[in-house]
Design goal:
The chain contains six helices and nine strands. With about 220 residues, it is an alpha+beta fold. Strand 8 and strand 9 form a beta hairpin. Helix 2 runs parallel beside helix 4 and helix 3 packs across helix 5. It is globular.
């Protein structure tokens, strides 16, 4: 079975999205790239019954190399993001706060220091129908220099060098969206992190969570 380890990781990743309530039903997708191959969650398969064999492997043109099921309908989106970035993994979800904020703003300004995890302000890709090349192009542009973005009237996406990294960013993205929504609801002016402070935070967050190697 091609990409056996990565396919097993994708099953676990989908279950993580479900446990964290970042998806409704099967409304999300996960992929991992290794060289010129991409493993991606299948279309319409319940996460609790999904197996590694259900995960589909394609080439970078979208041709199925292994797997009997249909790949996610968002395969063009994943392939476009891989072509535009150095990502090794992509996660896409439809969590409530990020989906709601993508309906009312064109960008999440740096209202929380965690914006630094994504490279600064989080862009909202213009709306296009799911599964289309236009959506793929819009999202790839929104991710330029960023590790996460929202999709207008749709959901959210994160990228990372590994699936673990990409998945770890989704709860933080949902959190800053929830905070910004609550701040907007007060009607009061929203205080933002200054550009110099955000630039410093982005630099600091580049090594966030890394521990020094123990000697001996």
């Amino acid at each position: 079975m091609l990409m056996a380890d990565e396919r097993a990781q994708i099953v676990e990743g989908c279950l993580f999205l479900q446990r964290e309530r970042l998806v409704v039903g099967t409304a999300g997708n996960v992929s991992v790239r290794v060289g010129d191959r991409v493993a991606i969650s299948p279309s319409g398969v319940a996460y609790e019954s999904m197996t590694a064999a259900d995960v589909v492997v394609t080439d970078l043109a979208g041709t199925v190399l292994d797997g009997a099921l249909q790949p996610s309908s968002e395969l063009p989106l994943h392939l476009a993001v891989y072509a535009a970035t150095g990502a090794g993994a992509i996660t896409h979800n439809h969590a409530p706060a990020s989906s709601a904020l993508g309906v009312v703003v064109d960008e999440i300004p740096p209202s929380h220091a965690y914006s630094a995890l994504f490279g600064g302000s989080v862009r909202v890709a213009p709306f296009a129908l799911f599964g289309t090349d236009q959506l793929a192009a819009n999202v790839a542009a929104a991710l330029d220099g960023r590790s996460g973005a929202l999709m207008a009237n749709h959901g959210a996406i994160t990228i990372g060098a590994t699936l673990q990294k990409s998945l770890s960013l989704l709860p933080y993205l949902e959190y800053i969206c929830e905070i910004h929504l609550r701040a907007m609801a007060t009607g009061a002016p929203i205080r933002l992190v200054s550009a110099p402070e955000m630039a410093s935070a982005v630099k600091d967050m580049a090594t966030y969570g890394q521990q020094p190697r123990k000697e001996g």
